[in-house]
Every structure is written in C-alpha cells, then in structure tokens.
Amino acid sequence: MRKYAFLLWAIAIVSAQVSFTGNTETRIGESSNGFYYNETLINTNLQYGAFTNWIQLEFSDPPELGRRVNGVRKLRLEYENGPVTLKLGDLYEIWGRGLVLNSVDDQPIDRDTGIRGLSLSYMSDSFTGQWITGRADISQSTIYALDYNTRTHNYHLPYNLYGLTINKLIGNHDLGVSFLQSREQHPVNTFPVDTLDIKNQLSSISYSVTQPAFDFYAEYIINRSFTFAENEWDPHQNGRGLYSNLNFYFKLFSLNLEYINYHFGDFDPFDRWNVVDNYGYYQPYQNPPIAMYIHENVLMNRISHQTDFNNEVGLKAEVMGSLTDNIEFLAMYAQSNRTHSWVMNEDYTWRQQEQLSYFPSFEPAAMPYKDFYAELTFNQLRNNLYLKLGYADSEDIVDLLQNTVTDTSQILTYSIASAKTFPLNLSFVVGDGWSIDAKMELQWLKKGYWSYNQQNNQVVADSLMSIFLDDEGNRVEDEKNSFISLSIGKSPKWSVTFTTDKTSIKETFGDKESIVNPLEKLLGVDQEKNWINVEFVYHLTTSMRISLMYGSLKGGLLCTNGVCRIIEPFDDGFKVGLTTVF
Amino acid sequence: MQLFKRIVIITAIFSAVYADEKRDIILPDLSVKLLDGKQVRLSGLLEEGPLLVDFWATWCAPCKKEMIFLEEFHQKYYEEGFRVLAISTDSPKSMSKVKSYIRAKKHTFMVGLDPNQEIAKKMNALVMPTVIILNKDRKVSWYHQGFIPGDEKEIEAQIRTVLELGQEKVGE
C-alpha cells in the first residue's frame, strides 16, 4: 500500500494540475542525563481535482516519546464529490462529542488512536452520515504489563471495527444515533500469557438544540461487551455513559454547564488503572469529554486530575463575561468523584458501599476532586497592556488506601494533593515592535496521606502526613513552587525567554540525580531545586521558525484532556526545533 | 544513524530553500463548519474579498491576546470586503465553551470548528496561533506562526497589502 501511495504521490507532484503544500517539523534534544531524541515529521498535502492526499513521513532515531519510525507514518487518500466523501487510509474522526468515537493523534503524550481503514460519508444541510471500517492499533504505557518505561509503550491492543453514525437536523434540533462494533485480541496477565477475544458494541443517541439565549447538548451511550469462548459469545459487561452541556447567554455574560456520568465499569481503588486485566469496559478510541477546566498555567497542569473514564460523575460550571470594555472575568468550579464509595473487607479486598447520587459529593471514600478557578483580564492603553490575574484552588483524592468500617469505628486513609495557585501574566508593547511578556505562578502544594480514625464515636485522628521533607529531613506541610518566565520580543522576528522553575523541596525522579546546569551555577541557585532555561525563537522567514533552548526542564506529569503521562526531566541540555511550511 | 542525519540535513536544506520560494500556494476549497452549525466553503467566504484564517483554542493564551486585534481589524476593514475566520481547534473536551468565550469577548468575526484538526493539518497550521491571509483566488498571501505582542502591526500591514490600501494607516 505504501509503494502505491508513493507512486501516486510522485505522479501527482510532477503533474501541473496539482496543488501541493506541506510542512516539516524537526526536533532534536540532548541532555546531560542521557535523554536524547532526534525526529523529523514531514507532512505533504496534495490536491488534484476531487482527490486529496495526505502523507506524513517520520524519521526518528529515537523520537522524544514512542518508538522510532523511518518512513511513512500516516497516509490518506480522499475523494470528494458534492455531499459524498470517501476516505481511505489513516482516519481521525469524532462522532458527536466523542462518547462512541474520538480517534486522536496526540503527539505530546504519544497517544494515537487512529483507525486505518475506509470511511464513506454524506453531508447535506440537514443530514449527515458516516460509515467507517478499519483497524486501530492502540498502544499505551501501563505498569500492569511487562517492560514499563516512560518513553515507549509496553502494551498493545489491536481492534477491528466498523460503525455508522447519522445526524438529522430539524429546525434548531439535531438528533443523532451511532453504532460501533469492535473486536479486539486482548492480552491478559495470566501464566502462560493468554489473549482473549473480546467484542464491544457501543450504541449512542444524541440531541442538541440551539437558541439565541441558550444551547443544549446531551449524548447517552450504552456499551455491551462479550467474550468468545467455546464457539459462542458470552455477555461480559454492560456499561453506560452520559454527557450533557447547557449554555446560557445573557448580553456579554455566559454560563457554561457540563455534566458527565460515565459508568462503564466498577473497579476497586487498587485496580482501577489496570487496563490489562480489566477488559470490555471503556475503550481507548472513545475519548469522551471531561468535566474539568483545562488550565493554561504550568503549575496547575502538573497536578491535573486524571479522569477515570470507566467510573466518574462530574459537574463543571463556568461563568465568563465583560465587566467593562477593557475588563473581563471568568469563574469556574468543577467537581467529580466515583459513582460509588468503597469499603475494605477484613481480608483487605474491597466492596462497594453505596451508590452515590447522580451529582458529585465530597465523600472521601469515593475519591472526589474539586477545582475552583477565577481570573480577571485587563486590556489597557489601546490594547498595548495586557494583564491577567488568577487564583486556583484544587483538591484531589488520588488514591483510597484504606476504609475499614465497623459498627463502632472507621479507619480511613487516602492520598491527597491540594494546591493554591496564583498565576499572573503581563504583556506590554513598548513600541517599534518591542514587547515584554512576563508570567509568574506561585503555588502552595500539599501532598500526603490523610488519616481519619474514629473509635466509639470519638475522632482520635484526623490529619495529613505530608510527603514533603526539608533538607534536614523534617516533615513540612507545603511545597512552595514558583514558575517565572520573562520574554523580550522584537516583532515579527524573534523573542527570547528566560524561565525559572523553582521548588522548595528537593525532588528526585527515580534514581536519577539532578545535574548541574551552568546557568543555575551562574545565578548561584540551589541546583537541586531549580530548573532554569533560556529559549530563543527566530522567524527566519514568514514560513520558517527556529527555536533553540538551553538549560533544564522539570519532569513530571504531563496531562492533556484528562489523560496523563509521566515525562522524564531534561537536565542541562539543548533542544532545537525547526518548523517550515511550503 | 548516518542515513538519519543525512535525511535531517537534506530536509532542513530543502525546507530552507523551498519554504522561502515565492510561489503561489493555492489552498483546497475546504469546507468549514461554523459555530452556528452552517457549513461553508473557503470559496464562499472569499466572495466579498480577502480572508484571514486564524487557528486558535480556548486553552491557548497567545491566541486569545491575538484575537483582540483580529476583532479590531475585522471591524476596521469590513467595508473593504475583508473577513476574519477564527477556526477553533478545541476538541470535544473544551468545545462546549467556544461559543461562551466568543460571546463574552464580544467577538463579531466568523468562528469555525475543527475538533479533530483536519482543517489545520490541510492548511499547515503547525502551532497555535497560526494566521493565514488568503486573497480572493484562495492563494496564500501571508503566513505567520505564533504571536509575539507587537505582531499585530505586521498583521495589519499584511491585511492592507492584500487589500491594496497602502501602509499609511498602519498603527493608527
């Protein structure tokens, strides 16, 4: 298939009738702690008449994340004739809001849920429909499979799937139905290793209405899974999910409400991230919406809540508007938890205690998460001065470790992360193309184990044991983090940014020690608590941009859209990036 | 490894030479879904005059700063037939707040939706924000990645160039 694609590409490119555009992205990095990557992505888009062809080439040795590829990474041929579109190759499609299908290629966290296959769609003003069939090879990193590491995936799931979605618009009302069936070969942790034959059937119905003063969207999904044994399909699991969104508009103010209730499976607190032995529940090609705010600031993103798509009830309310012509505000509150609270038996196994209401609660045994964020934005001096002030307050019960309940006692232990964060962003255009951009984030972070012990109606313990130790080994309650970046730019050509990322507690990542960065040494800061770098971005031409970074970057959790991955620190090294468009 | 290095060097040289070559890049007549649910084609949007296409997202801070100026240019040059189309690349995770954001910020330009970034890929929008100015023939007149405060002066200069207005009013 690749040979034919190349042939087509070569024929097309020499043809005078072809519109040819593309881009390249080269990224090279090497640090003193042995982190090295070297990757180039080349995208070409060809159009000849009703045909469009996309080819993505990758040359990596190795890439920053994932396995090395040298050659064609993605390709697709499209044919469009009026309302009909035919696609053959690598498909990335979203049905509705993604409860049934939302295939993505999220390279920052190396998450690719694309489908290689065939799609036929029809689109008119009042009707849309799409039929799809193909294969999705989805890889992920999990500690529940052998050979876990932070850079390459260690668990692979192949899916063969087909499905159909249709939407009908009647006035302002849009009705949709979707069905998708997938069949997977699912390796499980048995000895000897076994592979199960699993079938998933996902069906959804959606409704939306749009009015000047409000709009509403709701989608409900049912997921039925089957296992194949003794020449027949046995029912395995029934799951369901609901997403709804209601927006109100009043003059320059708007209220955005989102509600999720995903119940594809019930897993005890020790087992809920085990994607190897828990099969037939939430599928990685689904990728539905989350009920949480996607923060723009660095420090909040590091403690981002990881959505449990198998079992989560959540609500988000967001108000935004303009107070005056130059002052805008935003306030947001989000909360979520599991559908049930959990209790530990005497033999240390778990059981569900009670189903909670359809709205999130603060019950610690249901691992709740809550986040409040508010910001004010000022645009002054004919938009030459931009100031944004924010405040974030979040609390996340990450793991439930113990909840033993008797008639007269309760022992409850859980790990918790809570933070208060103050982000600030100031931009000022000095004149003649010169500008200054400053970002400052301050954060007080608590992390540790909360113990609650009640005996005979007397609370004998209710406190946090922090995981943070100071330089003398004494336990301290808060870790104080700061992130400061200062940019000077000369539009439209270049900008230089100096960034310092500081913490009050020495952090180690695995067994790797922090390496001295000469920049840190020059500034006389504690090298084990500071990550300092400087980045220069230069626009060689309007379509060519080069970036050079020298210094250190703090590792940790990198989250996009509720899905997280651990990234290794980058100590004392160079990063070079080149993007071009042709 | 040697082969790989050669490929990278060749790519860099090719890009450097080819990217700067002054040639007519004509974009495909892409179909874009607008915030109000309507499907439009680039050719339809270009009937009145040149079009500025901006790729943005609700989680992208520089994009939001840039959009303040795009609104200003949209109003200032509307009579000349100039239009702004801001295409949101928000995925389903955040697309519910696109309309809320646009209403609250009083933006009056057209807003498109590209939740799986298919249009962004076809228009070579590698980073957020990316601004592409198209003339009436769907030819790319100007392309710009990222936003440094002060870039708005260059954006306006390019708008005036494509409108053939001269540069005397820039920055006023």
Structure described in brief:
Chain A is mostly beta strands and 582 residues long.
Report on this model:
The complex is a heterodimer of chains A (582) and B (172). Chain A is mainly beta and 582 residues long. Chain A is built from three helices and 31 strands. Chain B has a seven-stranded mixed sheet. The radius of gyration of chain B is 17 Å and the shape is globular. Chains A and B meet through β1, β2, β3, β14 and β15 of A and α1, α3, α4, α5 and β7 of B.
Secondary structure layout:
The complex is a heterodimer of chains A (582) and B (172).
Chain A: H1 2-14, E1 19-31, E2 36-48, E3 51-60, E4 70-81, E5 84-91, E6 105-106, E7 111-112, E8 115-123, E9 127-140, E10 155-170, E11 173-188, E12 194-210, E13 214-229, E14 232-250, E15 253-263, H2 298-302, E16 311-322, E17 327-337, E18 340-344, E19 350-355, E20 369-380, E21 385-405, E22 409-431, E23 434-455, E24 458-466, E25 479-490, E26 494-503, H3 518-523, E27 530-541, E28 544-553, E29 556-560, E30 563-567, E31 570-581
Antiparallel strand pairs in A: 1-2, 1-31, 2-3, 3-4, 4-5, 5-8, 6-7, 8-9, 9-10, 10-11, 11-12, 12-13, 13-14, 14-15, 15-16, 16-17, 17-20, 18-19, 20-21, 21-22, 22-23, 23-24, 23-25, 25-26, 26-27, 27-28, 28-31, 29-30
Chain B: H1 2-19, E1 31-34, E2 39-41, H2 42-45, E3 51-56, H3 61-76, E4 83-88, H4 98-104, E5 110-113, H5 118-122, E6 130-134, E7 140-145, H6 151-162
Parallel strand pairs in B: 3-4, 4-5
Antiparallel strand pairs in B: 1-2, 1-5, 3-6, 6-7
Helix pairs in contact in B: 3-6
